[in-house]
Structures are given as C-alpha cells and as structure tokens.
Design brief:
Residues 3-88 form the Nudix hydrolase domain. It holds the Pfam family NUDIX. GO terms for molecular function: hydrolase activity. Keywords: Hydrolase, Magnesium. Its cofactor is Mg(2+). There is one protein chain. By secondary structure, this protein is mainly beta. It has one domain (6-87): Nucleoside Triphosphate Pyrophosphohydrolase. 15% of the residues lie in helices and 43% in strands. It has one helix at 44-56; strands at 6-11, 13-14, 17-18, 21-25, 28-32, 35-37, 64-68, 71-72, 80-87. A hairpin with a 2-residue loop joins β2 and β3. The longest helix has 13 residues, at 44-56.
Length: 88
C-alpha cells in the first residue's frame, strides 16, 4: 500500500514576483506556494509539475531543487513529512 508523507512544492518567481495560491487549512485562508503530495508511480519532479498544473493551470518543469525539510509531527507516533521545494 502506497502511504508516503512526501510533499512537493513549486516556487515560481517571475518579473520580481512570487506565485502563491490561496488555500484553506483548519478553516483559515492562507497563502502558500503550489504544493501537494506524491502519488504512486510518480517521480518527485512529475509530482511538482502535476501540482503546479492542478493548482494554477501553469505547465512548467522544475529547473532547480531548492530545499528538503524534515518535519516530525508531535505525538506518540512520529510522522515524518519530507517537503521538497523546486524552482519552476
């Protein structure tokens, strides 16, 4: 069963501005970069391309890997999240 906790995100910078999308988390509207989770049979780059397309309608291929961040959820059962940031 495919159950990763891997998130990919795209940082899009053009003409001196960054692209952000509005999303609602726990009832609050927030601004974030286009991001989402890795799906089965998908590379990290493919996931980043798909999330950018789904959330913005923009088709672009990531050009640079920017950052890897490990987050450990508090609680008795550790959950590791591995967000990967790409520049598109």
């Amino acid at each position: 069963m495919f159950k990763p906790h891997v998130t990919v995100a795209c940082v899009v910078h053009a003409k001196g501005k960054f692209l952000v999308v509005e999303e609602t988390i726990n009832g609050k509207a927030l601004w974030n970069q286009p991001a989402g989770h890795l799906e089965a049979d998908e590379t990290l780059v493919q996931a980043a391309e798909r999330e950018l397309w789904e959330e913005t309608g923009i088709r672009a291929t990531p050009q640079h890997f920017l950052r890897l961040h490990q987050w450990i959820a508090p609680g008795s059962h550790p959950v590791f999240a591995l967000p990967l940031y790409y520049r598109a």
